[in-house]
Design a protein that fits this description.
With 77 residues, the chain is low in regular secondary structure. It has no helices and 2 strands. 0% of the residues lie in helices and 8% in strands.
């Protein structure tokens, strides 16, 4: 299956990419007790913008750790 990227046009703003736990807000906004822990590739493979070049590098990563780092949520609420 091939899915097309979603495009949001709000008034005169064009939003190409909404990432994890992201928002489009016009006006005041308040967030309380938000915790987001993700590990993602910030290198090649993510295409942002209207005209993006496609680069397909070939690499191998040998990560033999069982856990890289445990994330713990500490909240004051």
């Amino acid at each position: 299956m091939i899915f097309l990227p979603s495009i949001a046009n709000v008034l005169n703003f064009k939003v190409n990419v909404l990432d994890r736990h992201s928002q489009i807000a016009f006006g005041s906004i308040q967030q309380a007790d938000v915790f987001l822990s993700t590990k993602r590739n910030m290198g090649f493979g993510e295409q942002n913008g209207d005209i993006s070049l496609i680069n397909i590098p070939i690499n191998f990563i040998n990560d033999s750790d069982v856990t890289d780092g445990n994330s713990i949520k500490n909240s004051v609420i």
